[in-house]
Amino acid sequence: MDKHDISSLKQLLSTKKKIVLVPHKNPDGDAIGSTLGLYHYLLKGNHQVNVIAPNDYPNFLKWIPGEDSILKYDSQTKICDTLINEADLIFTLDFNAFHRTGNMETVLAESKAIKIMIDHHQAPEDYATYMFSDVSMSSTCEMVYHFINFLDGTDLIDATIATCLYVGIMTDTGSFRFPCTTSKTHEIVAHLIEKGANNADIHNHVFDTNSYKSLQLLGCALTNLKVVPESRTAYITLSQEELNRYDYKKGDTEGIVNYGLSLEHVVLAAIFIEDKQEGIIKISLRSKGDFSVNDVARTHFNGGGHINAAGGKSYLSLKDTVEKFISILPSYNKALNHE
To answer: Does the chain have fewer CB atoms within 10 Å around its N or its C terminus?
Structure first.
């Protein structure tokens, strides 16, 4: 973000504005953390601020300060449409294409509000007047910290804002173990802890809230784990019947794909989850090193993301989707076996 954009945004935010903050559909820790972190910061500027999520999100995110203020577009459409149409500014966080918001796509595209994008995914669409897009960043929460710094507002970061931003940095870096974690990331995290983020409590809230059924579902997923050794690939499947058997709740499959990636010699891991209601197979892809699952997701599975973490979907059956995945692996064998 250049000096001219920063100056313009300072001017825009110098007077009271009607502001809407939007994360992507099926928001994760980074999406909720970044929107709520910015929400609490903007409230300090006496703005009228609303967070509108396209749909609901896992229970392990429902303790974050301000979470109870979030509107859900799929169940509160009328009031959300009014707020979007009346907004002066709309911040889109942790996504860079309107289709990532599901049913909100049209109303966002037609809104006359000034759009500000804060995001770290590849290939942003050109819808925002102000774009803070940086694929080198660990998380959108780290970017919101930088954004607040651009506005000379870090002195306003309190324990509430720090907690929100810590959540997204922690989750999107895999608890600080992914390659996107830099020395600057650690500096920011240290500052957030100084400001009052309780790192131990946050970790417990997010990762140590499993139900008995969710652990049984994990056991089922690990039983379904398969390895394709010649392609250094592991994959997991979960059918709708298996999800139903273990009383699946949103968020129960979070992080399961990483078990495949933890196997020795595995470079690429995938999980395929059947969703009968949406009529799709949801796909999460993870990789090690410089193998790009973003390219795999974009080319074959109607998705995208980062080099080492991406998602997609398939309209084929679960069986056919897995067969398609296995069939494309040989074309990546050279890259997957590259040391």
So the answer is: C
